[in-house]
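Quick one: structure for this chain?
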Amino acid sequence: GFVSALLFHSGPWFLFVLGATCHFAFAAMWFFRSSFKARRYVTLALNRRLLQQGDLAEGYETAAVFRDRFEQELARARRHGGPLSVVTVNAEIIKDSSSHANPLENPKFLDHLLRNLRREDVKCRLASDRLAFILVETDSEIAGHVCSRIQSQFEAIKNGESSALQTRIGSASFPRDGSS
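Got it. Here's what it folds into:
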């Protein structure tokens, strides 16, 4: 009733603004529905908001969400014929040494580690000593460069403050040989 009374007593200028607003809203809905990158941006923005409300380190997803995202990204890579890489990082302190903190328990180090990755890459903290990353649309060569950058960060810590740190970084890429 309010909208009909407003339309009945309004002039042509208001109707033009209302029509333009409706047109813009439908165009935006069409764009977000049809654009893969726009949907990805909105999904990542929503994921970040949910992560900030939890008690996890900011920017890292849970293992269940990571598994779902991996299946989605692998299906997308198969469908579009694009590459996909996964990097895993294990970092542990040797038990016999003096008590040093694991760098994966340091929020500043985790934040610094995120800077080696792109915004659209999926980051997961699987355990206190294990991380995993899905490198979206990344082939094995570039994934190797990312692994070496991450390894250099751990080497700097190992050479500096924690000689008891042991790290293992591995990567897997799809397609592995260009066809599988």
